[in-house]
Amino acid sequence: MPDMRLTIGGRIYSVTCQPGEEQHLARLGTMLDTAARKASASGGLTETRALLFAGLLLADELAETQDRAAEALAAKAAEKVKAEPAPPQQGDLLAHDNDTELAARAIEKLARRIENLAAGLENQGAAS
Q1: CA distance to 14, 21, 31, 39, 56, per residue, from 4 (Å)
Q2: What is the pTM of this model?
Q3: Which of 30, 35, 82, 88 is deepest in the core (most CB within 10 A)?
């Protein structure tokens, strides 16, 4: 397994990832570093609190993205209902919408990756 070095908030962390995920992990590290720098800008925060606030900033961005995606899907479903009324026995209008399914899986995968990265960083912090 590849071993990566990520610089987050001015500190270097060694993180292991799956082969082929190095570029993605580096991108996530850059995102976390940017959030950590924003969180640290107010000053007076310990490293742990700065990473906590960085995580909260990223979680807020993810929540906003999920909300926008849900609103877009709802608007799309509403347009579909107006254009083509569903037969009475069709069931869930979104059940056959491949784009919706792909978007939901992508959001879930991203959330799992962020959670795994956070857990890895917590384990690295505990080991340090």
Answers
A1: 6, 10, 15, 23, 24
A2: 0.55
A3: 35
